User: Which sequence fits this backbone?
């Protein structure tokens, strides 16, 4: 009885787990920490911008966003 139960439940569990994890791995929804260059100094923000150079600089409101607190590595909008 125990053997038949495991033969039925384990494959079903593996299928459910793989389907569930397939939807949980979308790369474009990952948030990256950054720092907005505000008049009061660097402000921590969560953004979906990337480090790769593109045409459009990343902003948070009207402020440019950088990867580091020293505001030396700019972030850019993701090219799609």
Assistant:
């Amino acid at each position: 009885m125990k053997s038949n139960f495991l033969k039925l439940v384990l494959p079903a569990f593996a299928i459910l787990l793989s389907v569930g994890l397939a939807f949980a791995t979308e790369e474009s929804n990952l948030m990256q920490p950054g720092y907005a260059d505000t008049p009061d100094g660097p402000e921590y923000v969560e953004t979906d911008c990337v480090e790769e150079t593109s045409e459009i600089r990343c902003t948070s409101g009207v402020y440019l966003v950088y990867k580091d607190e020293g505001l030396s590595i700019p972030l850019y909008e993701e090219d799609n």
User: Anything to note?
Assistant: The radius of gyration is 21 Å. The CA atoms of residues 6 and 70 lie 56 Å apart. The mean pLDDT is 83. The chain has one domain: 2-66.
